[in-house]
Amino acid sequence: LPYVPHVPPTALLGKVTATTFALERPCCVFDRHADASDAVWLAVAFANASAAFRNPRSRADVPPYKQLPTARSYMTLETAAAAYSCSAQSPPVLRVGGDTACRDQGRQDPCNGPLPSPGPYRVKFLLMGCRGPKAETLWSEPILLRTALSPSTIDPAPARRGSDVVVIASILASLGSVLATAVLVALGAKVWGSLCHQDLGTDAFTRRSYRTHHIPPAPSHSLPTSSRCSPPGLCCSAPQSPAPCQ
């Protein structure tokens, strides 16, 4: 079949790891060749051993996962062909090497165990019926897994530079907080001073405009002559009689 298996081109978390990789599900590829009882398998082989791979004649001849180190290939992900039809509601991605249980338990049936080395690997899909293989896809391009680094090869300098950046960022954040506090204090002092100035002006105006009620003294010319007092120690002389007529 003119279909080439491939890793999904879109961004995907854990698309390729040190022991697994993701494959795009081949939808609508086997519809014209598959029957209800058929199954689709995934053949996995080291890239330099894919040319020597031979399709098994029956399910009993499927190479198991545990023979990968010696046989350089195995088959896994046995799935009903209906799961790859155009109308199937299935996840769009398959993960190769995602089953850690089969390695730990040493099961004999075909399983999807973690890949033992970075590879590279090549894969193809194989449609098998009761009488053997019925159709197959092309081999994929070589797929290279990630390689874990030894702790002794990791340069600690980037970590130190990262710590310096964190310290600088903390200092800048502190300075920003201090500056914001100073601005708030200055604005508060200015507002408080303005309010105090307004209060002082109002009190002064009130004091200047307030008048006490009092009676001014009466003018001296309004008093009668007889009621005027002489200076202390002096007597008032009696008024003189007019001179008699001659």
UniProtKB/TrEMBL annotation:
Claim: Transmembrane helix is one of the keywords in the record: yes
Keywords: Membrane, Transmembrane, Transmembrane helix
Transmembrane segments: 165-187
CC per GO annotation: membrane
UniProt protein name: UPK3B protein
Protein source organism: Origma solitaria
Organism ancestry: Eukaryota, Metazoa, Chordata, Craniata, Vertebrata
Gene name tied to this protein: Upk3b_1
